[in-house]
Amino acid sequence: MDVDAPPLECRSEARTIALTVNGRTREARIEPRVSLLDALREHLALTGSKKGCDQGTCGACTVRVDGRRVLACLTLAVACQGREVTTIEGLPDGGGLHPMQTAFIAHDAFQCGYCTPGQIMSAVALLDEGHAADDAEIAEWMSGNLCRCAAYPNIRAAIREVRDAGDGARR
User: Fold this and answer.
1) pTM above 0.70, yes or no
2) Smaller CB count within 10 Å for the chain: N or C?
3) CA distance 31 to 159
4) CA–CA separation, 134 and 156 (whole Å)
């Protein structure tokens, strides 16, 4: 036995993985236990998704994986290999803002802005999923995204605007 070797639990098991994020395949050397959120922020320099609670209760880290919204803090990065990850940075199409981003600005649907990326990612998914018939349904399907500034009425107004314009679906 090598007495100079670190204990088994301290040995790095980092490996190189390929993640397709916002339409671009990128490699990162990470350990298997690294969350998608940490891989995005710390290894790929995509800091739009926020680390709020790191327990899956606030929704600030919401991204889309294969078109479905997920909490990046509870998703292992290695589990996303071969899947399409979309972050807030990948939402705009052709350099302009996504209609939901424009609506959030128009309705002042953010105050401190910390939860905004997760709110927008969930709002776009909400429309794609067809869960925006009325304010009660919007509130229910957005309930996993917390806003400590209480901008909920403005967030719902932004979602309604994009819903009513019919341009909130995937771009």
Assistant:
1) yes
2) N
3) 38
4) 9
